[in-house]
């Protein structure tokens, strides 16, 4: 009796192994990378990101936009703009720290009855040339946030209103709380739209893509 029970358990275990193996073959399931493989992939991505950094030599001067040119300062999707923040002064590039000159424009859109909590934040960054917006579109406007992780895990190119933009879900949780980030290059500009609530009012994407068509 005991022998038959052990034989039965062995048959079940063997069957499970066969099923798992067959499933892995059918669905092309690959084994998880080792710690050494993970570190090597991180080193490779870090080296690739450094190679991608555009040159800081002979950059043309930025012709700064006026704040009312850079931002849409009117109601969008039932939200009204708060006080816009102007650009910071232009500074020469710092090749040692890879600092690139830029001009920043930012505005928060809020519900009229609640002007304390921003629902949508828009930032437009103006660079000396189009190489820098393309670089940040690939590696995120804040590459340090990725911590050398694979950008493909959190950055996804999606189509919005006949344009390709980057969707960043690294600060969005499964229950759709947290921040959802869209950004894209447009010539010398990088446009960032952050949704701070669950609701995603795509009218912001439509209006800003009309103003700044994507270069992706």
Tell me what you see in this structure:
- By secondary structure, this protein is of the alpha+beta class.
- It has 2 domains: 30 residues; 170 residues, no CATH class.
- It is globular and about 55 Å long.
- It starts with a helix and ends in a 5-residue tail after the last helix.
- The relative contact order is 0.13.
Protein traits:
2 domains; seven-stranded antiparallel beta sheet; 216 residues; globular; 30% helix; alpha+beta
Q: Strands, helices and their partners?
A:
Blueprint: H1 2-26, H2 35-52, H3 67-70, E1 79-81, E2 103-111, E3 120-126, H4 131-139, E4 155-160, E5 163-168, E6 180-186, E7 189-195, H5 203-211
Binned strand content? 15-25%
Element order, helices and strands? HHHEEEHEEEEH
Q: Could you say which overall geometry the principal axes of the C-alpha atoms support?
A: globular
Number of domains: 2
pLDDT below 50 for ≥5 consecutive residues: which ranges? 17-25
Number of helices: 5
Structural class determined from secondary elements: alpha+beta
Profile the largest sheet: 7 strands, antiparallel
Number of extended strands:
7
* Rg over C-alpha atoms, rounded to the nearest angstrom: 24 Å
Distance between the termini: 69 Å
Q: What would the average pLDDT be, to the nearest integer?
A: 81
Spatial strand sequence of the major β-sheet: 1-2-3-7-6-5-4
In helices, the fraction of residues equals: 25-40%
